[in-house]
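Appendix B. One record, verbatim.
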Amino acid sequence: MRLACSLLMLLLLAGGCSTSVDFQTAGVATEFKSPEGDALYQIGTGDVLEITVYGEESLNRTGLVVRPDGKISFPLVGDIEVGGLTTTQAKDSLEKQLREYIPGAVAAVSVVQLGSLQYYVVGKVNKPGMYNVSKPLTVLQALAMAGGLTPFADESKIIIMRNYGSETARLPFNYKKIKRGLNVEENILLKRGDVVVVP
């Protein structure tokens, strides 16, 4: 029974107990959410977009893949920079450009498929390196993909390094406590470029 309970707890943690967590670390207050329907999610290379222009069915597009230069091509306006923007910012930019041709144009932009989410796991894990996945992963899931921790890893001092422009935040991850069902809010979803460091 104890083994069954332990396995159930680990499965729940690996799936993430919450899609939205607020906590303060390294002087940075940050909100973490799942990309699905998340206004804070930043569009990246390889993401697939769907764009609807209300009242202009001929302009509606699905399956628009964000190119390596962060742009997509759209009728009337040509290339549009969407890489690094939220869907709301991309919508505003598209509407501004479309209104030169269609006064009062109203658009909707959504991410229908995530492209490659690149992250890194370094330090005392069995398979350190760079990983590319097509869907968001929690820290626990990323560690599992990296083959788990080595016997000499410091479970209580794992950190996730995340860049915010020129600033880098160090987000704590205490694996020792998380195994006991504590500090589960630290099991965040990884973002592009995150580095999981296992000392």
